[in-house]
Amino acid sequence: MQAKSEILALVLGALGLCGTIVTTCLPHWRVSAFIGANIIVMEELLEGLWMNCYRQANINIQCKVYDSLLILPPELQAARGLMCVSIVLAFISLLLTGFGIQKSSCCGDNLKSKNITYALGGILFLLSFLTTLIPVSWVAHTVISNFYNPTTLDAQKRELGLSLFIGWATSGVLLITGIIVLFRYSKRSAKEDQRYIEAYHMVKRNEQKADSVDFSRAKSSFHTNQEYV
Q: Which UniProt keywords apply (predicted)?
């Protein structure tokens, strides 16, 4: 059961890493909102972190990379940096978690170092969860606010894209992974402390036995000398 939970954490961590990459790369953060009197739509606008795309009649799609970072709104600029940080954190946390599992040869028989490595992986998974959830929720809040803003033109209104939903699902996976890893770490550290306590009591018992043996020997020697006198 313990090994299965560690393998499950690795699988979920890998899914979280793939999810952050997909969320960052897909140009589906904001899509055209088909509202108004004209219900015949021939072209759809897709806006992402790195490019915007035009899709015509669900067949042809043309994408263009942004000429400058400064033309993006603040939420997309922040989302670029945070999502890149999330990818790096998810990758490092996945490596640390893999090195920290009990079946790993990393750190040899040093259980304390292995547990610390495992705990760092769980903490970084939680940080990756935050750096994924914040930009996705920020962009979604901006899209919804502009959609219900009466001063915004219909042509400028956008809807939530597929990348946002993938980002929310990915952040949930990263959160669950971090919780599993830290819960498993608490169990492992408790067992390690129990071993240290048992070893300490064993050493104490051995010292007490050694002292009692020395005392009995000293008493026997003194008694022998008295008999000799």
A: Cell junction, Cell membrane, Membrane, Tight junction, Transmembrane, Transmembrane helix
